[in-house]
Design brief:
The complex is a heterodimer.
Chain A lengths: L2 E10 L8 E9 L3 E6 L5 H8 L7 E6 L2 E2 L5 H9 L1 E4 L11 H5 L1 H6 L3 H14 L15 H13 L5 E5 L7 H17 L3 E5 L12 E6 L2 E5 L1
Parallel strand pairs in A: 3-8, 3-9, 6-7, 7-8
Antiparallel strand pairs in A: 1-2, 1-4, 4-5, 9-10
Chain B lengths: L1 H40 L1 E6 L5 H7 L3 E7 L2 H6 L6 H10 L2 E7 L5 H13 L3 E5 L2 H53 L4 H4 L1 H27 L1 H9 L9 H26 L5
Antiparallel strand pairs in B: 1-3, 1-4, 2-3
Classes of the chains: A alpha/beta, B alpha+beta.
Chain lengths: 223, 270
């Protein structure tokens, strides 16, 4: 099976003196669903940030879809990000844009025409059960609704890689289940590789998917 | 309301710049026109032992625009009584020649001094009267007026720059989050900063429109025109096409600098 992510002797951190992820080697197969777990401050989010190029490797190498991120150019990184859907713990919705416009952000960036944007936004609004909120602004929505918008945005351009940081962190059961269903759907129906950083793996998903655990800066694969 | 607030500060700041710029331009034009008035009414009187041609004056002294010989007939006419015609002719020949020199522009005291010195180098010229005292005080008044206006324009400029730098910080804060988020989804810089440049262009157009309306109104106001007639100054307050282009250029330039600064200083969120 093709590898979508290959990390070799990878070290990550915010200063040269102290690495949060230390000399780890791992790979993730294309089309797989992977959980990354660990205690608070273990480096889960740091690792995820490196996967979308917000944090460059201090040492070692990190290759995503054939692109080495250590010395990646801005244009190559942008190209990689255009095929990546990201769900952030703090949603990162654009405050002055409506729900509808937030969802089509990756389509705007990708240069899709208006008709495609409209079709996609209608489909996704219905998937995340937010059709009635399409013209509202993020501040008018609850936390759960905002996370559903962020989820719809991540899926809007049918990405090959989906990265989610604590996507159900503070959500109610209804919103959490909806998010897990959407992530699983993207993995199964669109064949997207899904990587989820979380504290709690849902019971129903524990056995089926790969699980990487971070402890003391090292990554362990749990079976 | 939100959209209004988004535009208000920068529009006001840009309007301030355009207002001070155009005011300065108007004052410059007024001073130039006034200087021309003064130049038309100011002349230097030269006394020469022998007759000199206009060509001789103009060739040697580029500042001179017109030379007029002052006839001695009137003076001699006053002495008419008791002097024979022959003696009058002899007296006329014996009297020195007087010339009134008109200058191309209202000269500075230095120019007056150097013109006097150059004229006196000619051995035929006996005396040069420049009416220096009155000239100097008028010139100083003119300089003072110009300085006051310059200080006013510079002050408005400084206040405006402070306003713009404050606005810059607000914009930086307001737009950097959106630019970061767009960047995380692969938007190139031109796309993530497009809104910023669109806002900058719109604000520049609004500010130019406001300044254009104000100065068009001022330039057609009967009160303003009558004031200018009172002080005998004939100037174009607002030269619609060129002045509009200058205003548009300045406001676009300033707002583009502002937007570019924000784009350059933007750091991607980690």
């Amino acid at each position: 099976m093709d590898k979508v992510i290959v990390a070799q002797n990878l070290s990550l951190g915010y200063s040269k003196d102290e690495y949060i992820i230390k000399d780890v080697t791992f790979s993730i197969d294309s089309g797989s669903f992977v959980f990354i777990t660990g205690a608070s401050g273990s480096g889960k989010s740091t690792l995820l940030k490196s996967l979308y190029g917000a944090l460059k490797p201090e040492t070692g190498s990190l290759v995503i879809a054939g692109v080495e991120l250590k010395n990646v150019s801005k244009s190559k990184l942008n190209l990689l990000r255009k095929h990546t859907g990201i769900v952030f713990q703090d949603y990162k919705l654009i405050k002055e844009w409506t729900v509808e416009k937030n969802i089509i952000l990756p389509l705007i960036v990708g240069g899709y025409d208006k008709k495609v944007q409209q079709e996609q936004v209608e489909k996704l609004l219905s998937h995340v059960r937010l059709k009635h909120q399409a013209l509202k602004y993020p501040k008018e929505l609850s936390g759960g609704e905002q996370q559903r918008v962020a989820m719809a945005r991540a899926l809007s351009n049918n990405p090959v890689l989906i990265l989610a940081d604590e996507p159900t962190g503070n959500l109610d059961d209804y919103s959490s289940q909806l998010i897990w269903n959407l992530l699983e759907g993207a993995n199964k129906d669109l064949d997207a590789t899904v990587i989820v950083v979380t504290h709690h793996i849902p019971e129903s998903m524990r056995v089926e998917y790969k699980h990487l655990h971070i402890e003391f800066g090292k990554i362990h694969e749990c079976i | 309301m939100n959209a209004f607030k988004n535009h208000f500060s920068l529009v006001i700041a840009l309007f301030g710049i355009l207002f001070s710029l155009q005011t300065f331009t108007i004052v410059e034009r007024a001073i130039d026109a006034y200087k021309q008035n003064l130049a038309n009414n100011y002349s230097v009187v030269v006394v020469s032992k022998k007759k000199m041609s206009e060509k001789t004056f103009k060739e040697k002294y580029s500042l001179i625009s017109e030379v007029k010989e002052l006839t001695s007939d009137k003076v001699i006419a006053k002495l008419n009584a008791g002097i024979s015609k022959r003696n009058r002719e002899l007296l006329k020949l014996a009297l020195p020649k007087f010339y009134r020199l008109q200058l191309k522009h209202y000269p500075s005291p230095n120019e007056v001094n150097s013109l006097t010195k150059s004229l006196l180098l000619n051995s035929s010229i006996m005396k040069v009267e420049t009416f220096a005292k009155s000239h100097n005080s008028t010139y100083k008044l003119l300089l003072l007026f110009k300085s006051v206006i310059t200080v006013f324009a510079v002050s408005v400029g400084i206040i405006t720059i402070l306003l713009i730098s404050k606005e810059m910080k607000i914009w930086q804060f307001k737009h950097s989050e959106r630019m970061s988020i767009m960047g995380l989804f692969g938007a190139p810089t031109w796309l993530s900063s497009a809104v910023l440049f669109r806002l900058a262009i719109v604000d520049a157009l609004i500010a130019t429109g406001l300044a254009f309306s104000l100065f068009t109104f001022i330039s057609t106001s009967d009160w303003v025109l009558s004031q200018l007639i009172n002080i005998e100054i004939d100037i174009i307050i607002f030269d619609i096409f060129p002045d509009f282009l200058v205003m548009l250029g300045v406001s676009l330039f300033v707002s583009f600098i502002l937007a570019s600064f924000i784009v350059i200083s933007h750091k991607e969120e980690v």
